[in-house]
Amino acid sequence: MRKPIQRIMVYIDGSEQSIIAAQYAICLAASSGAELIACYIVNTTALEDLLRARIFLQDEQAEYGHDMEADAERYLNYVSELAARKGVTATRKSGRGSVHKEIVDAVREYDVDLLVIGELSPIRSRRDEFYDEAERAMRAAPCSVLIVKNEDRVCEMYESVE
After folding, report:
1. How many other C-beta atoms are found inside a 10 Å radius of the C-beta of residue 48?
2. Strand partners, 42
3. Biggest distance spanned by C-alpha atoms of the chain
4. Residue 63 has what pLDDT?
5. Which of 8, 13, 144 lies closest to 75 in space, CA to CA?
6. Facing residues of 36 across strands?
7. pTM of the predicted structure, to 2 decimals
8. Mean pLDDT by 10 residues, the chain (162 residues)
9. φ/ψ (deg, to 5) at 131
10. Phi and psi dihedrals of 88, rounded to 5?
């Protein structure tokens, strides 16, 4: 019989919620023997929108894009270190583009069984709901999705993994 969860992907965006989600995904991978993929997407769509709105100049867009790529590398390194401390190897996936589309493409590429994301931010308007990339990915993902909540419990669980 095939294990129900063979590959877990956690979406990292640099927020505290995404790091908590990574800790939870590490716990799941450690206890189930599943592969773990840490995914960070640089939101180039937002950068293009800022350029079109004339908030950024072309040079500023490029510089900010490089900064975002450095952030991606730093957060993926951090999650890899968190995983290694618990005996889990994390495959790193970074990309550029429309976040929800890139996440869904990565889920398909890696044949992911479970997408793990951090707690969604509160919706203040229908516009916020439409532009929340994690929520859009959650709705479009072709696999089960787990939204991680309860930071204290997750931290306690992560610390208890040997």
Report:
1. 14
2. 96
3. 56
4. 66
5. 13
6. 8, 90
7. 0.85
8. 90 94 97 96 67 58 70 95 97 91 96 94 58 80 95 96 88
9. -95, 0
10. -110, 135
Place of tokens 């129900």: 4
Return the SS3 of 16. helix
CA distance 108 to 120: 22
| 37 in Cβ contact with 64 (< 8 Å) | no
Write down the H helix ranges in the chain: 16-32, 44-52, 58-85, 99-109, 126-131, 133-140, 151-160
Tokens 């709705």 sit on residue: 139
Phi, psi (deg, nearest 5) at residue 87: 75, 20
Tokens of 114: 């479970």
Task: State residue 131's pLDDT score.
Answer: 63
Domains by residue range for the chain, with CATH: 7-157 (3.40.50.620)
Q: How far apart are the first and last CA of the chain?
A: 27
DSSP 32-69: H--EEEEEEEEEHHHHHHHHHTTSS-HHHHHHHHHHHH
Question: 40, 28, 18: which is closest to 151 by C-alpha?
Answer: 18
- Please work out, in degrees rounded to the nearest 5, the angle formed at the alpha carbon of residue 145 by the alpha carbons of 140 and 148: 130
